[in-house]
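Lab intake sheet, docking and co-folding queue.

SAMPLE TYPE: protein with bound small molecule
LIGAND NAME: magnesium ion
LIGAND FORMAT: SMILES
REQUESTED OUTPUT: full 3D complex as structure tokens
PRIORITY: normal
SUBMITTED BY: R.K., bench team

The fields below were copied directly from the construct record.
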Amino acid sequence: MEGAMVGWWPWFGSAVASTIFLWSMVQSHIPDTVRLNLAALAAKLTAYFNPYLQITISENSGERWKRSELFLAVEAYLSDVCARRARRLKAELGKDSKNIQVSVDDHEGVTDDFSGATLWWYASKQPPKANVISFYPGEDEKRFYRVIFHKRHHDLVIDSYLPFILGEGRTVTIKNRQRRLFTNKASGSSSPYGAKSVWSHVPFEHPATFDTLAMDPKQKEDVIDDLMAFQESKEYYAKVGKAWKRGYLLYGPPGTGKSTMIAAMANFLDYDIYDLELTAIKNNTELRKLFIETTGKSIIVIEDIDCSADLTGKRRKDKKASGDKDSNDNDKPKLPVEPEKDDETKVTLSGLLNFIDGLWSACGGERIIIFTTNYKEELDPALIRRGRMDKHIEMSYCRFESFKILAKNYLDVIEHKLFGEIQQLLEETDMSPADVAENLMPMSKKKKRDPDVCLAGLIQALKQAKEDAAAAKAMQEEEAKDAEAKKAKQKLEAEVNTAKEKEEAQVKKAKEKEEGKDKTSEEANGDSMQADKMQE
Ligand SMILES: Nc1ncnc2c1ncn2[C@@H]1O[C@H](COP(=O)(O)OP(=O)(O)OP(=O)(O)O)[C@@H](O)[C@H]1O
Ligand SMILES: [Mg+2]
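RESULT FIELD (auto-filled):
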């Protein structure tokens, strides 16, 4: 009974106040001063009789085109938490045109309880001003939410309840939002009101999860723990004075699941993905613009960083140019010789490092940056040192533990008589999870996936791969042997040539010596003949 009274009071109080106020307003023949006095009297009367307060949260944030964040949070909170208790709801198609969003209908009241206080909410809208012609339909109709509560809960509502609603509403919004995959490859999309964005986006709908990702279970658990620790460490990062971000380097041969892992991470964390194509960026200025336009709760990905740009080469050249003096200082990017000129024409390693460490870090938190590569050893150490790429994750060829995950996903098989042979073959052969998965997919003519057939097919493929690898190895060894023999032959030839040259040189020398002797004896003969002549 008391509950009913309490529920009835605020509406009654508001109704009395509104009636008196409206009455005073329509009495246009009453002079202004009297009318204002009547309005003040009405407010006082309401306050006297009505122990309830109300707070209005308007849709308009004051900024053109922008809806108030508190209004959006209240809307999300009421739709999620209180809508089930309302009797009149409205359904709309969400922004992505897929989800149906149900919310409380206008003028429908819903109650909420918070720390022992009861609160009444209702939504309504202010009609557009009669003398304003709007360009966009519905633009001038201002919607609002109003909460009514007893005045003894004033402090509780202001200090705790409204901040609580803001937090909860934001969480619900993130939970319900359509996640997006952004890319800088295509030309940027325009917002309806002008400014062109440097990113274009599509809905992110990759189905990969950590459950479907085939990798060593311990390694996988380690990655999940790391992500969870990161997500829950907002205060910790603030305390130690570090930007709330984390870098991962995913490396391994093609088809081992690096891109799949990124999708699984995004689905696990509920983050957007920004796929950054470095080759499509003109210079460091454009890179800066792109980084600044990324939002929180996102993963920024640079795939195949080794092929993305001449980052390593640039730095090595710089290193050479700068001499030995600071060659030990690996972590300091060397500036290009002509920084301004360079900045105008291309993205440099130092530009990239600066954004990872500096400017981007200051842009607010909860961001992950991921590089992928097939050749970790070819990357500049500065790019992947701990602190920048905090965690290095190796994605390797498919072994038995990973295979079991694929068999469960693709064939719904947990145990099978062929598993023993497959295990043996997987230990002896390097096959990527992508190739293993490919062998588990074929369908029979009856459009069914028969585990016996698929696993037998996989065994065939593994045997073939093993034979191919053995043949390739034999060929390599043969080539190595040939090369060795060629080298030995070249060496022998060189030795023979040297010996021949030596011998020739010796013969030549001996000949010259001989000729020299002959000459001296001839000269001696000539001299004695001359002496004889003189004596005569
Ligand atoms: N570890 C894995 N777990 C589950 N599926 C995988 C895994 N690795 C590969 N696949 C399958 O193979 C396909 C290709 O894998 P993915 O693109 O993730 O490989 P990658 O390591 O990024 O290769 P690349 O180096 O060529 O970019 C995926 O679509 C997925 O179906
Ligand atoms: Mg990939």
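REVIEWER NOTE: The two ends are 170 Å apart (CA to CA).
SIGN-OFF: pending second check by T.M.
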